[in-house]
């Protein structure tokens, strides 16, 4: 029994111990607890050897309990110290004045509620600043703890100064000493309700699906409590907190800045007298959660002590303008930011007073108005409204300030009320531009205000809804568009019903609206998807599936649908619908969009990418082969998983059926950075009927007989109607961060007005536009109660002073056409001095209105130039002349600077800020660095500064223990122009510590481009550039050579001009030097078996050298052939290269043999072709390569082809060196170089010269010769100095070798012999695929080019690796690079890039657009007598845009390329093609007269043209009159028409009507329509809209079931008594009984069927498929009075007989 009692006693003792341990600390009444308190905040990089900034606050804290939950707190003797410099050498420096300021508020008594370890409400004096209250919160936050009585380790969500965050507790008990340690840690990135403030980021939406580890700001805090317990309870003896915020702007693990905060609260003792209760009333200040207030007013700029706002505003504005006038733009931008901050605290009266002081001073107005907009306060917004209402601002000032004000203003109820008054302001309504800006801005304000609200107040959206309703009732299309765009900016689900009224899918009344309104309605749903994703996705999917809508509307719906990131079922359903999609434009667009998404790498789009990958497999490759005629989506994207950053650039190309080129182009740039993906920038262009501007506009088509005939004809074609009219229109809009900020809609009248204004434009004045580009701030509390801010703000100042005039003669007429510009003379005088300055300030640290501490980053960009010139353009004379002034003073054209400081500022000592550079000054590099530098300096005396001809380059670089220092300066002189330019680079950063982007930014950087004058012997008066094309080019060079003499030269014979020009250009010396080089090279080649390497050969020779001749070619250094030392060098280098080549090739097939067999070239062209084929094995793959080459025999009369077969290892074409070298050699024989000037005059001359006051002009002249004869196309260009017999020259030559090969060369230096580069482009086959090879060879180039090439070469392997290319180290020719591109499919290609020491290659590279090709076509079948590939590529492309329709016997090929067989009923005219636009310009009809003969009837203007065959001869009638055979025939009407003979038939050309060419020979009929007629034709030839799936459209738009029904629908009915055609179209009743659900029905065809007229019987029939509409048998529906049923549903498809020939015996005709 005693043992049991003893056990129970021990148990009770244990329970009591646990009981005391599990209770929270308590403060006993009647006592005052004395604590020492210290908090330190440091800002640092991960490396502590760099500068740091921080603050330390020490004080004594007294706490007394006055009731059950109420406690009093006093902070005594607060002392604030600042640290700025290097730890630990630089100490904390006390700030006595700031300490006194803080002590004034902290020494007061505070009250707080504290129960069970939780801090409740906090009470403070009424006049206590929020900063002091937050510091008290930092102390009380250390008392916050949650103890669970049954657990020692647990997790929960706990409230604190930073909000409610995830917290983990660990309790350790030391029962022997009656002590316990409580540890808790908080994850500050995992908070339910976090105390955070984001300013300036309303349009940036965080990514909800991004992982936490990808966030660039991470934070945690740990607390360690030590308590002791006894019988009286638990007391807190000490508390320590450590908080770390790690900021990694680029998401680099090692590239992070850190903020460390440490608190320590230690119990010193207790005393009996409690804290006396305050005599004044304390105000409740909320809970422990941090309060944001005063720090929001302080921008991340130097502190401003605001005492007298009126005076400070005036002085700041004056200083700002003075700095700007002095050119101190940096100081002006800093003052501008101060002005913005002052405006934020100014009252309306103060702003009005300042306005009255400077309203009449133009230099002050732009700064004042821009600062008002950037302030974004309620009073500033109201002030701007009053000034616009009072018309105190001009149109342009209002246009600039309105968008800035609406997007920078802080949205609240007051500012929204003011914004609504803008909408009804009469002054705003007067100017359309202002009205657009205001409505779009109001929509953006609503979006910001309702961004985080579930429901947006209806009264905010009502103005936008009212505008949409009023615009619909008035039929105002422009207001409809404006309302939809503003609603789209607002992005609220309450607007969905309004938007649906503009979509025909949901409202039948919307069908009559223009397509652009439908597009705007779809785009208005984009932002609404953020709040109601399911509803928007459902609407958009219905719009996309609605095939009755215009293709561009459905394509925009596709864009919006994929922006909602649909799931796999939706994507696959979309793909399935494309299998039966009738519009190829829509199908092509959707397919290419899915394909681009499938290739994306952005993590947020992974699910969508996977779904699109499956979808494109469902569709197959059919849609992948569509050409450029169809709509596409082009996407370029990349993502770095290391930095969690990426970008997507998409271009949506939306073609219209009526255009050959995209009518709608939307380009969008989206950025994914800091896990905030959003549309950064979006620009869209829409065009409509722009081809009208390029055509004759004064042709009265409506007055001609053809117009009336087509109107009457339309009545006989059931359901036919002309296309709606379209006026030329161009519209564009721009969106930034998803908000549309401006759009413009330009119609024909606006274009005419613009051209009229430009024809007599004069401008003069000075402009300044300062803009606060952005202000983004992210503020979170620290445990100490101070705010940690990441702030970024940017200021841009754009300035321009201009004085210019533009005159056009003759003046532009009212009916402007682009063709008029070719007959004009333009004189321009301009004196423009633009300047731009951009200043960005970024801050990380403590930012309050009392003090600042942290890092400050400054980045500046400046651009400055002066453009004073006179330009004269004479389009008729083909002359351009520009004159400008030379450089008279040093100008900094552009500069970029950045620097980082550790800063410490406080309000009490504004003028004595502490600022430390990141690196310590005067640091001595370590010994190894010194030794390395001294060694380099001794071995390379000129390494610090290298001077070269006309260029100076100095470089200095070293690396120390705390930073990398780098400087470089490069200068280039242009003495003939009297100026020089220099590029200076200077960098000092911490990248040597850690190679991250953040460390590269930490430091100083400067890059600038300077233009300065060069002192010459004579002053330069002006610089002149003149370009003369055409027949006067030669005279211009002769005139310049005479230094402006006015001797007559026009009457000189051509030989004299030719001789003078040849003498001026000193061509003889060039070709003499070239011949010497060729003879010397030939002798060396004979010695060593290499080919001639000259570059000036006849066009029939290949201008390219092989690697085996590169050593011989290098002899063009100016030395004589007799130099035996040079010969030895050449011989030795040849041996070395040969050994390398043999060793390199031995790794491949050692048995590779090279056999060449000659064969006759009778099957090819006269020059002979050589086919080189090789097999190579690389990466276990087999490739067969062949290129077609040309070689000319030494004998001129006998020419042979050469077939070579080579085997070697390697993937690229370069491995076929034995064969390829043969056909790529420079073949120079005994023929002399040819100068085109001997037989051709120059086609272009350009002269750049400096006009001196006391000296002849100096400068350069350039002459261009061209020879465009078939098979001999060639260009030569010569450049030289215009002063004296200078030996420096530039020579370029390019020629077409044959239809597969182009070669060129560039040489410059003394007589064009110092440096030379050659290139060649050839087409052929590579591994059985069509391919193109580009080869570049440099024999000798300047050192600057070699240096640049080496620099590029160093980056190439890494760049190729990042882009996914494979690499192989393989030695090749040392002066040669080769690129081979093989088209393996219309959307993929293989690429091989061969460099001297590296081969880069890749296979199956996706192309953004399909490339039409025919890989199955053998190369030998290509026409060798022509060089179509190079000379006619542009012409072929233009011809491919034109529509071609052909009728030959029973085979018809439409404009869209659809072929079908159709036998025309005899003697019945068919509408072959007609203009279906409102102009109704032409009609072409055709009828079959016999089995193989046709006749046509063409109607143009007032002409009726008949072409037919009679007695075996082609006959021509015009207006019923037989025309004699003396063709050509030309019309006299306003529109031109030409009829002429061609081959065996007649040709009609009427380009003004849209018929480029019509050919007829009785058997064959060909029509070529102009490309601007696309989508505007109809008839059997089709609509010319590329919609091949909808080719069989009848006049009513119904899609016929087969080609026969389609052809019958275009037969023109005639009077059966007067015409020869006895057929007409009638609705028929189905003869086969049909029943539905056991109910008898009768069925009628929905489209008429061809039948013989009454009184005639069919003798020939043909079966056709027809759709039928069925009704109950007892229905009243009958064929009587029913001309058409195409609007009825199609219930069944059946085959019926259509009549094609009739026999008429009982035809009743009137007498």
From TrEMBL:
Disulfide bond annotation, renumbered to this chain: 165-191, 207-210
GO annotation terms (biological process): cellular response to estrogen stimulus; response to estradiol
Record flagged with keyword Ion transport: no
Biased composition (Low complexity): 1105-1116, 1133-1162
Keywords from the named record: Disulfide bond, Glycoprotein, Phosphoprotein, Signal, Storage protein
Keyword Signal tagged: yes
Pfam families: Vit_b-sht_shell, Vit_open_b-sht, Vitellogenin_N, VWD
A GO term, aspect molecular function: lipid transporter activity
Vitellogenin domain: residues covered: 27-665
Bias type Basic and acidic residues, positions: 1117-1132, 1163-1174
Sequence ranges assigned to domain VWFD in this UniProt record: 1443-1618
SUPFAM superfamilies xref list: Lipovitellin-phosvitin complex, beta-sheet shell regions (SSF56968), Lipovitellin-phosvitin complex, superhelical domain (SSF48431)
Coiled-coil residue spans: none
Name of the molecule in the record: Phosvitin
Organism: Cyanoderma ruficeps
């Amino acid at each position: 029994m005693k043992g049991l009692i003893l056990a129970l006693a021990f148990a009770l003792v244990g329970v009591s111990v646990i009981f005391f341990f599990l209770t929270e600390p308590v403060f006993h009444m009647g006592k005052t607890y004395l604590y020492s308190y210290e908090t330190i905040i440091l800002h640092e990089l991960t490396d502590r050897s760099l500068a740091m900034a921080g603050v330390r606050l020490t004080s004594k804290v007294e706490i007394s309990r006055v009731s059950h939950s109420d406690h009093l707190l006093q902070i005594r003797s607060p002392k604030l110290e600042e640290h700025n410099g290097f730890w630990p050498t630089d100490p904390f420096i006390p700030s006595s004045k700031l300490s006194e300021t803080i002590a004034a508020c902290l020494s007061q008594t505070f009250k707080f509620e504290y129960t069970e370890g939780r801090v409740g409400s906090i009470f403070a004096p009424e006049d206590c600043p929020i900063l002091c209250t937050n510091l008290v919160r930092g102390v009380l936050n250390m008392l916050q703890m949650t103890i669970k009585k049954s657990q020692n380790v647990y997790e929960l969500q706990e409230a604190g100064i930073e909000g409610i965050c995830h917290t983990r507790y660990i309790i350790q008990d030391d029962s022997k000493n009656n002590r316990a340690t409580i540890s808790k840690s908080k994850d500050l990135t995992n908070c339910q309700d976090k105390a955070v403030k984001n300013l300036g980021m309303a349009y940036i939406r965080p990514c909800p699906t991004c992982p936490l580890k990808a966030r660039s700001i991470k934070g945690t805090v740990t607390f360690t409590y030590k308590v002791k317990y006894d019988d009286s309870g638990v007391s807190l003896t000490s508390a320590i907190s450590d908080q770390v915020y790690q900021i990694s702007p680029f998401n680099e693990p090692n590239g992070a800045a850190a903020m460390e905060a440490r608190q320590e609260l230690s119990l010193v003792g207790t005393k009996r007298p409690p804290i006396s209760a305050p005599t004044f009333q304390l105000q409740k200040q909320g809970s422990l959660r941090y309060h944001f207030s005063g720090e929001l007013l302080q921008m991340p700029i130097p502190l401003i002590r605001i005492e007298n706002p009126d005076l400070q505003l005036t002085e700041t504005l004056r200083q700002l303008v003075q700095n700007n006038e002095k050119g101190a733009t940096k100081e002006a931008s800093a003052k501008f930011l101060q002005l913005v901050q002052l405006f934020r605290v100014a009252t309306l009266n103060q702003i009005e007073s300042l306005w009255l002081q400077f309203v009449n001073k133009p230099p002050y107005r732009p700064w004042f108005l821009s600062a008002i907009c950037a302030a974004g306060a309620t009073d500033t917004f109201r002030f701007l409204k009053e000034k616009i209402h009072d018309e105190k601002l001009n149109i342009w000032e209002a246009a600039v300030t309105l968008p800035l004000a609406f997007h920078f203003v802080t949205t609240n109820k007051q500012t929204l009320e003011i914004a609504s008054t803008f909408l009804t302001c009469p002054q705003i309504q007067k100017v359309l531009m202002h009205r657009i800006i205001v409505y779009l801005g109001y929509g953006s304000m609503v979006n910001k205000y309702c961004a985080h609200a579930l429901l947006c107040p209806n009264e905010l959206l009502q103005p936008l809804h009212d505008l949409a309703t009023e615009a619909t009732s008035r039929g105002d299309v422009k207001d409809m568009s404006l309302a939809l765009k503003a609603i789209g900016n607002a992005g609220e689900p309450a607007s969905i019903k309004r938007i649906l009224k503009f979509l025909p899918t949901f409202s039948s009344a919307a069908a009559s609206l223009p397509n652009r309104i439908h597009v705007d309605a779809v785009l208005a749903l984009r932002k609404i998807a953020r709040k109601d994703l399911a509803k928007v996705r459902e609407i958009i999917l219905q719009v996309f599936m609605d095939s009755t809508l215009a293709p561009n509307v459905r394509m925009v719906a596709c864009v919006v649908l994929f922006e909602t990131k649909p799931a796999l079922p939706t994507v696959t359903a979309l793909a399935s619908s494309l299998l039966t999609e009738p519009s190829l434009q829509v199908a092509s667009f959707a397919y290419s969009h899915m394909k681009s998404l499938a290739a994306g790498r952005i993590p947020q789009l992974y699910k969508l990418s996977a779904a699109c990958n499956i979808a494109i497999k469902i569709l197959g490759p059919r849609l992948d082969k569509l050409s450029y005629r169809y709509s596409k989506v082009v996407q370029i994207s990349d993502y770095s998983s290391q930095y969690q950053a990426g970008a997507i650039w998409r271009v949506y190309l939306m073609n219209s059926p009526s255009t050959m080129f995209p009518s709608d182009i939307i380009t969008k740039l989206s950025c994914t950075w800091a896990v905030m993906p959003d549309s950064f920038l979006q620009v869209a262009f829409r065009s409509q009927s722009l081809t009208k501007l390029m055509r004759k506009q004064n042709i009265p088509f409506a007055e001609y007989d053809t117009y009336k005939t087509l109107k009457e004809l339309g009545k006989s074609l059931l359901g036919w109607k002309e296309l709606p009219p379209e006026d030329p229109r161009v519209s564009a809009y721009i969106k930034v961060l998803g908000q549309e900020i401006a759009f413009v809609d330009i119609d024909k009248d606006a274009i005419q007005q613009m051209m009229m204004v430009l024809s007599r434009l004069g401008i003069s004045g000075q402009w300044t536009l300062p803009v606060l580009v952005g202000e983004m701030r992210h503020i979170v509390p620290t445990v100490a109660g101070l705010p940690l801010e990441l702030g970024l703000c940017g200021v841009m100042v754009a300035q321009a002073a201009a004085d210019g005039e533009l005159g056009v003669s003759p003046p532009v007429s009212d009916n402007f056409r682009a063709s008029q510009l070719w007959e004009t003379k333009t004189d321009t005088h301009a004196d423009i001095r633009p300047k731009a300055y951009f200043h960005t300030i970024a801050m990380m640290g403590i930012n309050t209105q009392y003090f600042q501490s942290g890092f400050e980053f400054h980045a500046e960009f400046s651009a400055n130039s002066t453009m004073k010139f006179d330009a004269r353009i004479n389009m008729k004379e083909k002359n351009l002349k520009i004159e400008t002034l030379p450089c008279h003073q040093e100008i900094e054209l552009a500069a970029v600077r950045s620097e980082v400081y550790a800063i410490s500022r406080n309000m009490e000592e504004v003028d004595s800020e502490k600022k430390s550079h990141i690196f310590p000054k005067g640091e001595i590099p370590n010994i190894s660095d010194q030794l390395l530098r001294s060694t380099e300096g001794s071995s390379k005396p000129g390494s610090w500064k290298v001077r070269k001809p006309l260029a100076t380059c100095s470089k200095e670089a070293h690396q120390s223990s705390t930073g990398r220092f780098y400087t470089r300066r490069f200068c280039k002189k242009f003495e003939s122009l009297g100026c020089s330019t220099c590029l200076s680079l200077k960098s000092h950063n911490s990248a040597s510590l850690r190679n991250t982007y953040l460390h590269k930014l930490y430091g100083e950087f400067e890059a600038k481009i300077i233009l300065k004058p060069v002192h010459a012997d004579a002053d330069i008066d002006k610089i002149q550039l003149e370009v003369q094309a055409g027949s006067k080019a030669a005279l211009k060079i002769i005139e310049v050579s005479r230094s402006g003499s006015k001797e007559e030269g026009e009457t000189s014979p051509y030989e004299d001009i030719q001789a003078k020009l040849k003498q001026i250009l000193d061509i003889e010396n060039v070709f003499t030097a070239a011949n010497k080089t060729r003879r010397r090279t030939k002798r060396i080649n004979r010695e060593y078996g290499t080919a001639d390497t000259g570059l000036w050969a006849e066009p029939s020779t290949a201008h390219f050298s092989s690697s085996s001749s590169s050593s011989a070619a290098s002899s063009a250094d100016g030395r004589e052939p007799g130099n035996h030392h040079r010969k030895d060098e050449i011989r030795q280098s040849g041996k070395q290269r040969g050994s390398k080549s043999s060793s390199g090739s031995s790794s491949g097939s050692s048995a590779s043999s090279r056999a060449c067999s000659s064969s006759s070239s009778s099957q090819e062209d006269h020059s002979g072709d050589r086919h080189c084929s090789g097999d190579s094995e690389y990466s276990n793959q087999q490739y067969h390569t062949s290129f077609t080459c040309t070689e000319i025999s030494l004998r001129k009369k006998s020419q042979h082809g050469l077939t070579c077969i080579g085997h070697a290892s390697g993937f690229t074409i370069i491995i076929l060196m034995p064969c390829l070298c043969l056909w790529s050699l420079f073949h120079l024989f005994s023929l002399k170089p040819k100068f085109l000037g001997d037989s051709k005059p120059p086609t272009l001359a350009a002269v750049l010269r400096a006009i001196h006051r006391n000296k002849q002009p100096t400068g350069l002249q350039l002459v261009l010769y061209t020879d465009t004869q078939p098979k001999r196309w060639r260009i030569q260009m010569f450049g030289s100095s215009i002063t004296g017999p200078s030996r420096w020259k530039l020579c370029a030559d390019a020629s077409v070798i044959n239809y597969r090969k182009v070669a060129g060369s560039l040489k410059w230096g003394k007589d064009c012999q110092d440096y030379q580069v050659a290139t060649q482009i050839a087409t052929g086959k590579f591994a059985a695929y069509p391919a193109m090879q580009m080869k570049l060879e440099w024999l000798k180039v300047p050192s600057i080019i070699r240096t640049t090439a080496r620099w590029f070469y160093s980056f190439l392997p890494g760049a190729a690796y990042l882009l996914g290319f494979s690499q192989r180290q393989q030695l090749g020719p040392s002066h040669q690079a080769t690129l081979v591109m093989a088209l393996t499919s219309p959307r993929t290609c293989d690429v091989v890039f061969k460099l001297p020491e590296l081969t880069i290659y890749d296979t199956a590279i996706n192309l953004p657009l399909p490339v039409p090709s025919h890989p199955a076509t053998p190369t030998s079948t290509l026409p060798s007598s022509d060089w179509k590939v190079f000379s006619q590529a542009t012409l072929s492309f233009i011809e491919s845009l034109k529509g071609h329709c052909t009728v030959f016997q029973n085979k018809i090929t439409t404009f869209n390329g659809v072929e079908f067989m159709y036998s025309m009923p005899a003697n019945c005219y068919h509408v072959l093609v007609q203009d279906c636009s409102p102009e109704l310009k032409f009609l072409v009809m055709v009828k079959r007269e016999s089995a193989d003969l046709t006749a046509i009837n063409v109607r143009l203007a007032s002409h009726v043209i008949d072409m037919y065959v009679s007695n075996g001869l082609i006959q021509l009638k015009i207006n019923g009159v037989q025309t004699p055979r003396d063709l050509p025939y030309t019309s006299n009407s306003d529109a031109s028409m030409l009829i002429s003979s061609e081959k065996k038939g007649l040709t009609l050309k009427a380009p003004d009507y849209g018929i480029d060419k019509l050919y007829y020979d009785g058997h064959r009929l060909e029509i070529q329509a102009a490309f601007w007629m696309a989508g505007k034709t109809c008839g059997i030839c089709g609509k010319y809209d590329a919609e091949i799936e909808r080719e069989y459209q009848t006049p009513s738009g119904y899609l016929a079931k087969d080609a026969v029904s389609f052809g019958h629908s275009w037969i023109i009915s005639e009077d059966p008594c007067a015409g020869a055609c006895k057929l007409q179209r009638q609705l028929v009743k189905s003869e086969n009984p049909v029943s539905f659900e056991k109910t008898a029905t009768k069925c009628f065809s929905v489209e008429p069927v061809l039948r013989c007229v009454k009184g005639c019987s069919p003798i020939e029939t043909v079966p056709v498929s027809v759709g039928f509409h069925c009704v109950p048998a007892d229905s009243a529906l009958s064929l009587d009075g029913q001309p058409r049923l195409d609007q009825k549903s199609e219930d069944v498809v059946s085959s019926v007989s259509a009549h094609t020939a009739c026999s008429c015996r009982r035809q009743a005709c009137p007498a």
